[in-house]
TrEMBL record:
Keywords: Autocatalytic cleavage, DNA damage, DNA repair, Hydrolase, SOS response. This is Helix-turn-helix domain-containing protein. SMART domains: HTH_XRE. The lineage of its organism: Bacteria, Bacillati, Bacillota, Clostridia, Eubacteriales. It comes from Faecalibacterium hominis (ex Afrizal et al. 2022). It comes from the Bacteria. It holds the Pfam family HTH_3. Gene3D superfamilies: lambda repressor-like DNA-binding domains, Umud Fragment, subunit A. SUPFAM superfamilies: lambda repressor-like DNA-binding domains, LexA/Signal peptidase. CDD domains: HTH_XRE, S24_LexA-like. InterPro entries: Cro/C1-type_HTH, Lambda_DNA-bd_dom_sf, LexA-like, LexA/Signal_pep-like_sf, LexA_repressor, Peptidase_S24_LexA, Peptidase_S24_S26A/B/C. Belongs to the peptidase S24 family. Residues 8-60 form the HTH cro/C1-type domain. Transmembrane segments: none annotated.
Length: 211
């Protein structure tokens, strides 16, 4: 199906489907139509997609090109790109918006983990964790899970607000979210689960520095 091919090409380039469509002068509703109906674009649109990604139109339609595939053989020792080993980069995590909504995905970044868990990258905002080397605009890899152990670094959502990255600890009905920052304005936050909703989104497992 064309949409599957389009999705794989976007992931290989590290760009969201909506962003690629925008750069080609196409609407998000067009991409949604490809997804929901399995429709094949018009010849004019196929030409745009072909030029944008640098692939033959026939390849977009699922046709085989043995000679082209031969030319694309990887050098010895190289690792082939696998779209399954990527995770979406989210600009933020907010309540009320599906976490993997198209408008929330800024691109795709490769991952090396093959444990079957679901992962996403999150762009860090603010300086509340800079004392442990996590700075503004860094990208953290998060494993989706509803619980973490005390003392682990987690992405947490409080009262449905935008998610925050803090060290997590729970004692009874009290949850303490602790920053690690050189900025003294950031202090531990204490919440009573009887009064405030605190939800763990996932466990931080990796940080990718962005300069």
């Amino acid at each position: 199906m064309f949409y599957d091919c389009y999705t794989a090409l976007c992931q290989a380039r590290g760009i969201s489907r909506s962003r690629a469509a925008q750069e080609m002068g196409l609407s998000n509703s067009t991409v949604t139509k490809w997804k929901n109906t399995g429709a094949t674009p018009s010849g004019e649109t196929l030409a745009k997609v072909s030029a944008y990604f640098g692939v033959p139109v026939g390849e977009l339609l699922g046709e085989a090109f043995p000679s082209v595939q031969e030319e694309r053989k990887l050098p010895e020792g190289a690792v082939p790109f696998d779209p399954a080993l990527t995770a979406p980069l989210l600009g933020t995590v907010r309540a009320g918006l599906p976490m993997y909504a198209e408008e929330n995905i800024e691109g795709y970044i490769p991952i090396t983990r093959k444990d079957g868990a679901r992962y996403f990258w999150l762009r860090v905002r603010g300086d509340s964790m800079n004392a442990v080397g996590i700075s503004e605009n860094d990208e953290i890899l998060v494993r989706e899970q509803p619980e973490v152990e005390n003392g682990q670094l987690a992405v947490v959502m409080v009262n449905g607000d935008e998610a925050t990255v803090k060290y997590f600890r729970q004692e009874g009905s009290l949850v303490v979210l602790t920053p690690k920052s050189f900025n003294p304005v950031h202090q531990p936050q204490i919440y009573d689960l009887k009064r405030v909703q605190v939800r763990v989104v996932g466990l931080v497992v990796e940080c990718r520095k962005v300069f």
